[in-house]
């Protein structure tokens, strides 16, 4: 053995320099940097050849081989939010893999992750990381519904409908349902009761015209017509939940018993109630008159207020000139 070779073998600096440096992937590549190490060469990547993945494994799956979830409880996705997610995926990659079940070789069906799949297509990805698991049709539905319920931006009606589907289509009892979604039985019951409200009220709750608290107060009223009437009053007057609860306790919409002869003389005269349709006509007329949004809000005992919106000091002066031309 020559001295040169011996020095190279024993010199740490020389030995370290002879070892090829390993390229470390950046965090911005998302799961790609973690999963791609399982492929030895480019020809083994799933976008280069068709592969089959075992159950309970994570791998890259071609988006062309993924079918939509037929049990997806949510059919509407905000397009702006979807585009924002796609823009994030272009930079950061997929942070959390979608979940699939395998139907056959190179054939998969989505269990959860519809938004991630759609956004990945918008971002132009050919493959996405996916967790493969075994599931039958009922498990597919149950997992899709439970994932849907756990979303933060779900409205109360969407949650209630998902609860109802879990009960009816997955044959769960309310106690079992509460355990699956991490809620107690009373919470589940309160959501399910929302589905007994008239359609107009459910739409108002879905569109955030009223809150869950308003809706729970309306449930206490038995007559659907009265529920709708109070719902419209809530929207028109922007009533608080506490005020609605007071109206319900006071018997809103219930016919008043006729006063006896002895007390009729001292009874206060009934205050006229302005119909909601007339209030809306008045608002439209004043809005056209002033060229600005006008709100007419009735109050107790015949009182009320009229609000005229303006955008600037000049706009306010224009409105004042209409009120006082001189």
UniProtKB/TrEMBL annotation:
Record's GO cellular component terms: chromosome
Record's compositionally biased regions (Basic and acidic residues): 1-10
Keywords on record: Chromosome partition, DNA-binding
GO terms of biological process kind: chromosome segregation; positive regulation of sporulation resulting in formation of a cellular spore
One Pfam assignment: HTH_ParB
Domain ParB-like N-terminal, residue spans: 59-149
InterPro entries (alphabetical): Chromosome_partition/occlusion (IPR050336), HTH_ParB/Spo0J (IPR041468), ParB/RepB/Spo0J (IPR004437), ParB/Sulfiredoxin_sf (IPR036086), ParB_dimer_C (IPR057240), ParB_N (IPR003115)
Residue ranges crossing the lipid bilayer per the database entry: none
GO MF terms held by the record: DNA binding
UniProt key word rRNA processing: no
Recorded family membership: Belongs to the ParB family.
PANTHER family xrefs: CHROMOSOME-PARTITIONING PROTEIN PARB-RELATED
Protein name: ParB/RepB/Spo0J family partition protein
Organism: Hymenobacter montanus
